[in-house]
Write a structure and sequence with these properties.
This protein has a four-stranded parallel beta sheet with strand order 4-3-5-6, with helices on both faces. It has a two-stranded antiparallel sheet with strand order 1-2. The longest helix has 14 residues, at 124-137. By secondary structure, the protein is of the alpha/beta class. α2 packs antiparallel against α12 (210-219). The chain has a single domain (7-252), classed as Rossmann fold, CATH 3.40.50.300. The chain is globular. It has helices at 22-29, 48-59, 65-69, 72-75, 84-90, 103-110, 124-137, 147-156, 164-173, 186-191, 193-203, 210-219, 222-227, 263-276, 295-301, 306-314; strands spanning 7-10, 13-16, 38-42, 96-99, 116-121, 180-185. The chain contains 16 helices and six strands. Bound molecules: 3'-phosphate-adenosine-5'-phosphate sulfate.
Length: 315
């Protein structure tokens, strides 16, 4: 299944035809969840692979064997990708599933289910930059063009998998309709991996003793995952992902967007963000807190930036 230049459109959202078909998208939206399922939900580039690794390790009491011998897409398949039914047929035990689909496409399938849903969100400036770089490598994604062109499509929601704003708001505003729902951010995972792993283990009711927790943290560190071919996508052939153009495990940092966004792009982004998120109480960490200059001095020097700084500092 190459279909590198094919785009599938499903409910007005576009998807790469290399991984999705009309049938696979229909299968996902009518999926029969089991109460023992764990579903990881993300907008692309928000920490999907990281959470797949954490859930795999937590579910195996920190034993790295499965994480080091089975590719992430085989142990936590994306519901909407064409190979999912075959992977599930061959799998045993509790299922770990992944999806990038927006809430409205999975809502009917999740109604009444007691499956555990973990939603991972990431600040959208870092998502946009990570997604842009991935477009340069992934031959199944459209040409990214310049960063300005890509950012404009990202803000409009015309990129593959649709609008970040609709995705994050759709899932979080409907959390009350989901029996077991955990919301966690990439930034929380980055700033306090131990507490994040503990949250996941508590949510999945898979308690870990200290040794298992340490082993989990070690295996899902950025460095370990960068070297693990089961998650760093080096198993994917060059015709599908051009490994000369970059790395899937690229930087793994909070706030890398500052190295790509121009001042004008930041202003445009902030205006769209403020307007699109006006009806949401979600807050994001935009920079590593230690990197922030003291709030007081910034506020004293530039009152026009206060709103932006407050958003970044306390979000
Ligand atoms: S995808 O294609 O949607 O499945 O991508 P996704 O896994 O959601 O996101 C990829 C980004 O997550 C970073 N990543 C990590 N950061 C820190 N620590 C760990 N362990 C980790 N694992 C994955 C990865 O580097 C991508 O972010 P960028 O900013 O591009 O580095």
């Amino acid at each position: 299944m190459a279909r590198l230049d094919v785009t599938e459109t499903f409910h007005d959202i576009t998807f790469p035809g290399h991984l999705h078909t009309e049938e696979s998208l229909h299968y996902a939206s009518h999926f029969k969840f089991q109460d023992t399922d764990t579903l990881i939900v993300t907008y692309p580039k928000s920490g999907t692979t990281w959470m797949q690794e954490i859930v795999t390790l937590v579910s195996s009491s920190g034993d790295p064997e499965r994480a080091q011998t089975q590719p992430n897409w085989a142990r936590a398949p994306w519901l909407e990708q064409y190979y999912c039914p075959d992977v599930l047929k061959a799998s045993q035990g509790r299922r770990i599933l992944t999806t990038h689909l927006p809430y409205q496409l999975l809502a009917p399938a999740l109604t009444g289910s007691k499956a555990k849903v973990i939603y991972v969100a990431r600040n959208p400036k870092d998502v946009a930059v990570s997604y842009y770089h991935f477009h340069k490598m992934a031959r199944f994604l459209p040409e990214a063009g310049t960063f300005s062109e890509f950012l404009s499509a990202f803000l409009k929601g015309t990129v593959h998998y649709g609008s970040w704003f609709d995705h994050v708001k759709g899932w979080t505003s409907n959390a009350r309709n989901i029996h077991h729902f955990l919301y966690i951010t990439y930034e929380e995972m980055s700033l306090d991996l131990r507490a994040s792993v503990e949250r996941v283990s508590g949510f999945l009711q898979c308690p870990l003793v200290e040794e298992e927790l340490t082993s989990t943290m070690k295996s899902c560190s950025f460095n370990s995952m960068s070297e693990n071919s089961m998650v760093n996508y080096t198993l994917v052939p060059q015709e599908i992902i051009d490994h000369t153009k970059g790395k899937f495990m690229r930087k793994g940092k909070i706030g890398d967007w500052v190295n790509t966004f121009s001042e004008e792009q930041r202003c445009i982004f902030d205006a769209v963000y403020t307007s699109r998120m006006a009806d949401s109480s979600l807050k994001f960490v935009w920079c590593v807190p230690e990197q922030e200059p003291p709030l007081k001095s910034r506020r004293d020097t530039d009152p026009h930036q206060t709103h932006h700084i407050l958003e970044r500092t306390f979000a």
